[in-house]
Amino acid sequence: MTDAQNPEPTSTVVWCESALLADGWARGVKLTLTDGRIARIDTDTSAGDAQRLGPALPGLGNVHSHAFQRAMAGLAETRGDTGDTFWTWREVMYRFLERLDPDMAQAIAAMGQVEMLEGGFTRVGEFHYLHHAPDGGAYDNPAEMAVRMAAAAEETGIGLTLLPVFYAHSNFGGLPPSDGQKRFIHDVDGFARLVEACREIVAPLPEAVVGVAPHSLRAVTGEELTAILPLAAGGPIHMHVAEQTKEVDDCLAATGARPVRWLMNHAEVDKRWCLVHATHINATETERLAKSGAVAGLCPVTEANLGDGIFPAPDYLAAGGSFGIGTDSNIVIDAAQELRTMEYAQRLTKRARNVLAGGSRRSTGGDLWRAATVGGAQALGVGRGGLRRGAPADFITLDPNHPNLVGRSGDTLIDSLVFAGGGIDTVWRHGQQRVSGGRHHAREAITARYVQTLKALLA
User: Fold this and answer.
1) Can you give the pTM of this predicted structure?
2) Which of the seven top EC classes does this enzyme belong to (predicted)?
3) 3-class secondary structure for the chain?
4) What is the pLDDT tens value at each position of the chain, 459 positions in all?
5) Which are the catalytic amino acids?
6) What superfamily does domain 59-379 belong to in CATH?
7) Which of 83, 126, 307, 413 is least surrounded by CB atoms within 10 angstroms?
8) 11-57+387-443 to CATH, choices 3.90.1170.40, 3.40.50.1110, 2.30.40.10, 2.60.40.10
């Protein structure tokens, strides 16, 4: 094989005034980035000829995103005649999909991914259930919409964990889907073909992952769940569960068990799984989920926006549970704001402060960022997460001169980022700098395309 076919590894060396490494904070950190990974870490060093950066943190994984919903932000905030709930919001979402074509879906996904990278996320778990044309028929390429999600990720540079969604029914008992759900629906054989196509589609992307996502117990029968789980082939398995009290009540009426209990009694829920929301779980389910090794996929901003409820985080974390954070409906895309909302929900419930800190004299922001790093990486199928030798070179750096970060160091930097906001300077994904001065390098072109898309979509 020739040298042209076997190119030398390409390396970049950056120096960070401090960095949150997998084993703690260090100062004067020099990172050697080779072929998208951290090949070497040196601490207590001078910068030399390396690119100088501010304090570094591992980028977070966004464990749950519906890309197309980014374009709906702010469009469902008018009160209806009979009050509003998740279920009335869902009807608005169905109507929004009536005109969305593949070009529009790609433009919206790219805009959302730009904002994810600027907001501290370096990988996204795309819970991908928009499969078909507006009339419910298949595109010429049945995986066309998955192609568009991968194309957006290629343009923006974000890490992609693609989670094709199996969706077959409108409610428990295998009820037929509603007209608004026609773009989501598959049978088992068609879904198996989609999953295989997704693996081919993402193969050119660096460190892309494919899993499977049975949408929810109301959309998937027990028999269908058993049939599709092997399609994960060792990859991640994500599922909505117990997001709404109505869902819990309907599950009890149909099966005699609450959703989390039913799922754990009928499937091998383990470290491959991410149970999205899991909002309405009782004490037994909380401990059982924590002990399973699965990740709770929490989306605090969306859960607040939709009026879902509040996850029992203190009890879950006390039982040793893992969590990741997601942006779900993408009404706001900001990793720090997700963690802030997670903590503030507990403060309002408990009428206390620093509820989710890991113990006395522990930093709330620091502990939440560390936990979301580890849980997010696990849920998205990319190992342990964190800045360590051999790990993906996916990290953010902060501007130490930002008004909210001046004079801070260590975990106080993270506390200020999470609770005061702002200050992300650069973002690196797979060893490449994608964000400088807080702005994605392709923001201008992607924003222009997104604006034209919205004008056409909302005309």
Assistant:
1) 0.96
2) hydrolase
3) CCCCCCCCCCEEEEEEEEEEECCEEEEEEEEEEECCEEEEEECCCCCCCCEEECCEEECEEEEEECHHHHHHCCCCCCCCCCCCCHHHHHHHHHHHHHHCCHHHHHHHHHHHHHHHHHCCEEEEEEEECCCCCCCCCCCCCCCHHHHHHHHHHHHHCCEEEEEEEECCCCCCCCCCCCHHHCCCCCCHHHHHHHHHHHHHHHCCCCCCEECEEECCCCCCCHHHHHHHHHHHCCCCEEEEECCCHHHHHHHHHHHCCCHHHHHHHHCCCCCCEEEEECCCCCHHHHHHHHHHCCEEEECHHHHHHCCCCCCCHHHHHHCCCEEEECCECCCCCCHHHHHHHHHHHHHHHHCCCCCCCCCCCCCHHHHHHHHHHHHHHHHCCCCCCCCCCCCECCEEEECCCCCCCCCCCCHHHHHHHHHCCCCEEEEEECCEEEEECCEECCHHHHHHHHHHHHHHHHC
4) 344 455 567 799 999 999 999 999 999 999 999 999 999 999 999 999 999 999 999 999 999 999 999 999 988 888 887 778 888 888 888 888 888 999 999 999 999 999 999 999 999 999 999 999 999 999 999 999 999 999 999 999 999 999 999 999 999 999 999 999 999 999 999 999 999 999 999 999 999 999 999 999 999 999 999 999 999 999 999 999 999 999 999 999 999 999 999 999 999 999 999 999 999 999 999 999 999 999 999 999 999 999 999 999 999 999 999 999 999 999 999 999 999 999 999 999 999 999 999 999 999 999 999 999 999 999 999 999 999 999 999 999 999 999 999 999 999 999 999 999 999 999 999 999 999 999 999 999 999 999 999 999 988
5) 277, 328
6) Metal-dependent hydrolases (3.20.20.140)
7) 83
8) 2.30.40.10
